[in-house]
Amino acid sequence: MIRCLIEEYLKLDNKVGVVAVDPSSLSGGAFLGDRTRMQVHGVDPFDKKLYIRSMASRGNFGGLSKSTKNVVKVLDAAGYDKVFVETVGAGQNDIDVRNLAHTLLVVVNPGMGDVQTLKGGIMEIAHLYVINKADYPETAKTEGEIKSFIGMLPKQGWEPNVYKTEAYQNRGVKELISGIEEHLEYIKEKK
Fold first, then answer.
1. Same domain flag for 140 and 94
2. Can you give the pLDDT at residue 2?
3. Each residue's pLDDT tens digit, 40-82
């Protein structure tokens, strides 16, 4: 999914930075699994419009490494228009990103199981919910569960929405970007 967002924002002439926090390997470094999936087609690796940095969580709880915030600050100071932070984000307590990012996306796959049981903490902080692999049969059920979950959240101004994407086919990505930009406008208006 992140690859599609990168490609679309680059097409819109944005300078894009990505900080991918991966689980630590036995050596203490990052597994780099996410970075290998982020190979962006048609982008010159020496182009200064895209920077991807993998970081190990180093066992840090909360889904981020301790230095993630500093890397984001450097990318912002370097003039990157969009900075994505991809967290380990596997459990209910991996929510430190809420103190760092302006817009929070939670990406799930159809048939992920009971929303409240599996990802309660993460699900509660999202501004946008993304069901990737939306061509799978369980999509409608997962969408219904997420919308039901949203209905139980306390109303706080912004109404989260659910987006269905198929990263492999690049479907639904432009709609998701519209949702991201809409949320950013909402934030600007609230300041």
1. no
2. 86
3. 655 566 568 998 888 877 666 666 777 889 999 999 999 999 9
Residues 73 and 144 in one domain: no
Residue 120 shares a structural domain with residue 150: yes
What is the domain count for the chain? 2
Asked if pLDDT for residue 28 goes beyond 50, the answer is: no
Structural domain for 113, as ranges: 103-191
Same domain? For 86 and 133 the reply is: no
Across-strand partners of 82? 16
Is residue 92 a contact partner of residue 121, using CB atoms and an 8 Å limit?
yes
Tokens of 6: 């990168």
For residues 22 and 152, the model is more confident at 152
pLDDT tens string 98-135: 888 999 998 888 987 666 555 567 788 889 999 999 99
Neighbours of 121 (CB within 10 A): 13
d(CA 65, CA 32): 14
Looking at the DSSP bridge assignments, the partners of residue 47 are none
Tokens of 160: 């989260």
Gap between the Cα atoms of 8 and 18, Å rounded = 14
| N-to-C CA span, the chain | 30
Q: Are residues 54 and 15 in the same domain?
A: yes
Give dist(CA 139, CA 49) in Å, integer. 34
Q: Are residues 18 and 35 in the same domain?
A: yes
**pTM of the predicted structure, to 2 decimals:** 0.85
